C-alpha cells in the first residue's frame, strides 16, 4: 500500500498550520497512523501504563494494522481487543482535544476515558456475576 494512505492529515478538516503531516502532539515526526496511535512518545506511556504494559520499541513495526494484528487480533481475546479499541479511541480523542481545544490530557486521563467507555460493556456481558453477589442457598 502506498505510504500516503497512512497519513491522517486531511486539509479540509484541519487548521491551516496542520497541513504539514507532522505530529501536532510531539512535533517530532510524521503523523502516520502508527505514530499517532502507538509510537508518539506521548502515546507510548499510555500503552505502557495500560493493563497491557506494552513497551513500544523505536524502529520496530511502523504499520498500524500489522502492530494491532500481532498485539491483539491474533490473540482472539475479545475482551483485550475491545479494551485496546477503547484505548485507541481515547488516544485519538486526546490528540483532537489538543488540536482543536488546546487541551492536552494526561496519560491517566486518557486511560480513565478508555475505562469509562469500556465499563458499561463489561457489566452487560457479566450480569450473572453481579447477581451472584447476593445469592444465598435456599
Ligand atoms: Zn508525536
The major beta sheet can be summarized as:
none
Q: List cofactors, ions and other ligands.
A: zinc ion
Question: Please, what is the average pLDDT?
Answer: 81
State the order of secondary-structure elements, H for helix, E for strand: HHHHHH
The low-pLDDT segments are: 1-16, 127-132
Q: What Rg do the Cα atoms give?
A: 18 Å
**What spatial form do the alpha-carbon principal axes imply?**
globular
Strand content: under 5%
Helix content: 40-55%
The overall strand count is 0
Q: Kindly, what is the distance between the CA atoms of the first and last residues, rounded to a whole number of angstroms?
A: 63 Å
Which class do the helix and strand fractions yield?
mainly alpha
State the assembly state of the protein chains: single chain
Number of helices: 6
Protein name: Reverse transcriptase zinc-binding domain-containing protein
Which helices and strands occur, and which strands form pairs?
Elements: H1 33-39, H2 41-49, H3 64-71, H4 78-101, H5 107-125, H6 127-131
Helix pairs in contact: 1-2, 2-5, 4-5
The protein binds zinc ion (ZN).
Write a short abstract of this structure.
By secondary structure, this protein is mainly alpha-helical. 52% of the residues lie in helices and 0% in strands.
Overview of the structural elements:
It comes from Crotalaria pallida (Smooth rattlebox). This is Reverse transcriptase zinc-binding domain-containing protein. By secondary structure, this protein is mostly helical. It contains 6 helices and no strands. The longest helix has 24 residues. The termini are far apart. Bound molecules: zinc ion. The site of zinc ion has 7 residues, from loops.
Amino acid at each position: 500500500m502506498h505510504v500516503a494512505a497512512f497519513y491522517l492529515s486531511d486539509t479540509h478538516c484541519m487548521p491551516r498550520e496542520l497541513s504539514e503531516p507532522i505530529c501536532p502532539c510531539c512535533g517530532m515526526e510524521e503523523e502516520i497512523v502508527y505514530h499517532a496511535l502507538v509510537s508518539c512518545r506521548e502515546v507510548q506511556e499510555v500503552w505502557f501504563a495500560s493493563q497491557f504494559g506494552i513497551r513500544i520499541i523505536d524502529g520496530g513495526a511502523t504499520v498500524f494494522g500489522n502492530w494491532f494484528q500481532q498485539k491483539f487480533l491474533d490473540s482472539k481475546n475479545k475482551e483485550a481487543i475491545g479494551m485496546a479499541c477503547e484505548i485507541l479511541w481515547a488516544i485519538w480523542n486526546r490528540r483532537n482535544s489538543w488540536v482543536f481545544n488546546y487541551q492536552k490530557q494526561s496519560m491517566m486521563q486518557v486511560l480513565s476515558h478508555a475505562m469509562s467507555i469500556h465499563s458499561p460493556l463489561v457489566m452487560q456481558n457479566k450480569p450473572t456475576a453481579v447477581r451472584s453477589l447476593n445469592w444465598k442457598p435456599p
